[in-house]
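pasting for ref
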Amino acid sequence: QSCGLNDRGEQISLCVLGHWSDWSACGDTDVCLDGATDQRSCGLNDRGTQLRTCVMGQWSEWALCSDPDECVDNASENRACGINGRGVETRICINGQWGAWSVCNDPDECLDDETEERTCGFNGRGTELRTCVEGQWSAWGQCVDPDECVDDTTQECSTICESGIQSCVAGHWGACSARQPSPEICDGIDNDCNGEIDELEECLCYLQDCGGHGYCIVNNWVASCLCETDYTTDIDPLFCIHEKQVNCETDNGNPEHSHDIMVTETVTYTSATGWSTPSVCAWVCDTDYISEDNATCIHEKQVLCDTNNGNPLNSEDSIVPVTITYSSSSGWSQPAVCAWECLPDHDYTYGGCYHELLVACDTNNNNPPNSTEQVVGVTITYTDAGGWSAPALCAWSCNVGYVLENGACLNEKTVNCNANNGNPVNSHDIVTQHTVYYIPGSGWSLPPLCAWECDPDHALENGACIHEKQVNCDTGNDNPAYSHDLIVPVTITYSDATGWTQPVLCAWACDTNYALENGQCLHEKQVDCDTENENPLNSEDILVPVTIFYSSATGWSQPADCAWQCVTDHTPENGACTHEKQVNCDTGNANPEYSHDLVEPVTITYTDAGGWSVPALCAWACDPLFERAGDICVPEECYSGATDTIPCGLNNRGVMDRLCVEW
């Protein structure tokens, strides 16, 4: 038999031992149902559609892709733009469609090889150029300016002679006002401005009179004076002198540590002998030096020490040479006083040599602070072998206002506070240290009473330390409206960690004429109307919410009775819901002449859609002596109950009977 997708396959069943075997597997080469279509997504973003059709059980090739997209989502492409085509503008593929091109990102600012010119220079009469190279303006070229200065400005100028001023006229500097150099002449002026005055050879003797005792001559650029008799030149070659001031002659053989007494004197010149010779200088010893032999200068010398030393009793002098020095202001210094030393077993002290002394007792007795030594005189002795003997230790006692305790003199000390403070039960003292003071005549002052604090997990209230107390229950119980708290005392406890525990929440009750329902106190509520309303058969209650009220004395009021209505396809009549009823048949039946209605009861039914149904038409009967002939009454042709026969059948050998009845 045929099988497969398009009934082009074949299944075989073999008759084996008189029975057909099961059908073989369908040998069907078809892969699709003829006329079926298949589609797949395609295109740049897989939003396109490709179709293929099943022809003779095989899929056709895929049709061309119907793709609404023109580009791959988020792809971008660039194109050249800008002044020289080196810019780039970009557009992006959004939902398969190319967006608008972006603003051109152009690195160039000018057209290649374009030139630009602007004015420049001191007075804006010059010109400078720049050229566009690879889209960028080159630097401005050098300004070609016919001017060399700003009109109407001035500047300092100079010649080798002096400084001056020159003015700018029509962009160019005028002549400098400074003096120009001229050939040098002998006039006391630097005419050629070379920094030298009258530098000509013939000017070397200009205004030179040789001091009035000679005349000036020039020889090979050297000017000199020819002086008259007994005159000559000295330091100044152009001035003739006869005498001059000089120092005395220092070549006088003065000793070491001396110096010449320099004085000036006048020497004279003669043409025959030259300058006269100055006298020899006197000399003196240097400061703090003296000459005792007019041949040497000394500052110090050796003499014996001075025995006038006031040495004390029980001592002797040690005479030795000592050095004394000379001072120009005070003469020779005094020789040092001779040393001296005490006799054996004597010591120099207090300006004398003593073997024994009366001294104060030794205060290094480790007496405590705030005590006073009782210093008295004691005798000590000296020996060369052992020195002075030690003085006896001083006795000591505490100062006024101090008392001796444990080897110390105290007028204050640190003690614990006074625990006799009457602290309450369940508390303990806070022991702190305080300073007490010693009062002569009355002893130590008393420390203050210790502070105290309650024991752990106790709190101070009204002077007592308590762990628990009675408080009213907590009215923060979120009781509903129209309710009141039932306030009773409850016990709370104290913890140092958390403080007083929270009192338990108060119970609560609804107010008078309110009842508790679902956590709320209600005085009225909505309920369904009362269905116990004696509604008739085939009716149903009209359930509506009604309000009932609560009274603490009587409880909830009764809900009002529900109204009722007849069920579907029933209507109220005479206090009952009726679906059907008996009425007379409908006499509006167009009965024929010589007939009369056969009035009898019929049932009609009620529907909500159409109301009462129409009663059935009454039957009718022909009046006496009339018989029915179709829909009319005709006079009778037979008597009721009579019979009649007529032949019938294939050969009219059959008989049909008829009985006279109403037609």
